Amino acid sequence: MNSNTNARRIQVLLSSIRQIATLNQQFTLDLKEKTKGWPAIIYTADTFEHFAAVCSRAFGTYARSHAEAVTHLESDVFSDFMRKVKEVTGADCRSLLGKPSVYVPRVRLQMQELIKQMKKKQPDHPDLPSLEKALGQVAAAGLEINELVDRKENKLELIKMAKRFNNMPNDLNILSKANRKVEKQGIMLKQCRRKEKPFYFVLLSDLLLYGDGGEEGSTSCSSPYPSNITVSLTSSISFVKLLSIIDSKYSNLFLEYRITNILRITHCYPQFVTKTQTPNTGTINFHRAMKLDETTVRDITEQDAERLTKHKYAFEIVSKKKSFVVYLGSAAEKKGWLTKVEAQVKANRKEGDQSVFAATWLHDSAVTACQQCSTDFTFLRRRHHCRACGEVVCDSCSKARKVLKHIHASKKQRVCKKCVEDPDRYKKKGSSAKSSESVTKIVDAVDDDTEEDSD
Question: What is this structure's pTM?
Fold first, then answer.
């Protein structure tokens, strides 16, 4: 968004503040005049009617311009300006900018109480019909303002989310759609090609983003022993020094060699782990964005998941370009994620869509021999995955390269012999999104985002 557009929106926002201030001052003066001396019968209907007639325009314009200008208000330049204002005056600009949006709902509550007391004490008061009509207008304005405030809050959350992602593609602007919002976010264990990895998932109205990271905090190895052997998981220590301070009673620390001849403590038993984390605040290293109109989900029953893996709660996320399985820690977590993703997929997918989805790869450890020629895999005879059907095959059975348009418009992918001989084979296997798919394939499904083009 260019600077001229931002400047206009800020100008509208500030001019709305002046208009609201004038309206509020006049409204207050009129009420004081009407109640001066507190006569036996007080007539205020015309004052409230005037307020009701103009509040939607004045406060609505402010709430709308505030929602549209929030991107600029959260920019580094404006944030720095607001910080300096607070240092000099003590005023919290963000808090003050939100106050006009709650003014109309407060007036509505006051009007409701006024009408309630009037009906109780002066049921035949001539102002009652006019006040009730004015209350309806104020209530309608309040609903409109609440919707605009919700839009602003959604956009604010998106802005904060965008700032958390590193390496976000330039052509992916998550602020580009007015009604887009964050539906759910958190960590799920994602089945990758060789092992499970924790990834941070963010479900938007029309996209599913994920990456590694997502939580701030530190993890350290600590013990009841002297503090000189308490070592941070992110710190390095020389091999000689480490040997000099660790004896047999600390042998439960796992050590990992690095090329630099430095040992880094990477894991330890649970009783030695101290973990301090703040969820939903850390930096996320972007991996992928999945369009929900090209995505579906497949449930995996607890019995099948537990029988075939060490995890009990799992489901599969299937899209045109990538498909994989995720694991959750409880039934409630799984239900929360699966329900939300299913709802957003349903809202975005066209009814009757017969899209071809990317195959969900079998796990390396799931097979010991080529699934087509039955030749055993060895150190030299490596496993490869057919990008069309997802089967694990040897190099001899997957020498072909073919463009799979649902994965990439022009880039050729590794394809096995069977998928070359029968071009519709992978479409038959990948187009269905029913839970009756092979459970073994689903549970062992993988995706390796760290090695996009390798096997």
Answer: 0.64
